[in-house]
Amino acid sequence: MAKDKIKEPALEEEVLEDVLVQESLLEPDEDDLLSNDETEEEDKKLNSQKIFYLIGIGVLSFLLFVFITFPLNEIVRAFLTSSFKDTGILLEAKEIKFPIFGRKFFDSFAVRFPSGTVLKAEETSLSLSLLGLINYKLEGDADISFFKYEGGEWSVQIKSLQIPIKLSGLEDRITKWNGEGEIQFSGGKFFESMEIPLLGSLKGQEIKRGSFQFKIRSGKLSVEKGTIDSSVAKIQINGVIRLSDVITLSQLDLRVCFSLNEQFAKERQDIAGLFTLIPQENGRACVPIRGSVSSPKVDVPNFNQLGVAPIQTEESGNPSATEPAPANP
Q1: Quick one: where's region Disordered (predicted)?
Q2: What pTM does this model have?
């Protein structure tokens, strides 16, 4: 019995030691607690960052979606109206389709200049740089159907126009524009025309096709490789037009070469006779044309030397007198 009593305290001590060891094993170290706290804080930070990233990506995606799909029609209309207000040029369109990507479309587009000159287009399709347009630059190409020019005594309609073009400085007057381009056209008609030296009125005459390459620098429009094939004549034009804010007052310094169409020459033998008196180059009559867009002038000295009435200019009265006068006896 005495031995059993001695063993019991020993067993209790062993059990107590085992319990203490187990508790010590179960209790976390301070280092572990600190590392766990740091990990939890980092997880919270990462989760917060992820949430902010996701929210930001969502907002940007929404804005991009709206920007791509939202029609800019009215924004463009307001931009065109306000941007050219100071120049006196008025731009109008019945309908505008202006997507971010792809071609832009204008229905019943019109440009009205302070001088009263009007450019109209029934349908206009443009491939433009949106960034360039915001910076008052026109870079791209245009396809125009049923273009019409109305200014002064002129009214001309062209069925089809293709214009690769690059212009800058559009926020300023036309005399400050710079750039270059090409105009290709086909099918057209003169509805109104002033009297043209040598040719008379072009009213009712048809335009078959034509093209112009041009450059605009410091108020000068240089015409290069200009050709027109019409029911009156085949015409080649080159030279310079000194631009004016009033288009009809722009000054001409052009060289024009004609070769009359056979049918027109038969119908207007008076004009055909005049052409035989003009200096010829490769079978074409070539004359300088000066004056202004509204009042072009032709200077052909041979007419006076041959006893023929001079080609009419602004100073010499009736511009329609293009028939030769009888020679002095």
Answers
A1: 310-329
A2: 0.62
